[in-house]
Write the structure tokens for this entry.
Amino acid sequence: MDKPSEHNFVELLEKHQNIVHKVCRLYTNNYDAHNDLFQEITIQLWKAFPKFRGDSKFTTWMYRVGLNTAITLYRKSKRRIKTQEFDAIQFKISAEEYDSTEEEQLKLMYQAVHQLNDIEKALVFLYLEDKDYREISETLGISEVNARVKMNRVKKKLKTILNP
């Protein structure tokens, strides 16, 4: 890859790296796994960058590569033996003025989302990123109607998980 392309890639990645961090947050449970997935997604973006034709927005393409990488690794990790995460055991000392309501609600939402399958997670993620159904369908490679139907099913599933 020539220098302008390399520079262009680095510039675009730095500008939009939060997308990769959000994908990592969705598919990992701890700091090390997050960093490993971030690195893997970055490598896959770099490998795929010469093939990026600009048919879609760079960020849409970035979501697609990031989610596909995470989903592929997520499926492989499902075959491993499940162990207790050290980070799951928390020791907290909270000050009286601290209100953890929002944090707890976010934690419950992430726990619910972690129970979804990989495509459902991607749908929720893109929906929460305020992507319209056209962009969701482009990113996931499904029809717009299918994206709407799946999203409605996922919303019902999350309501059931959060309010048993």
About this structure: The longest helix spans residues 3-27. The chain has a mean pLDDT of 81.
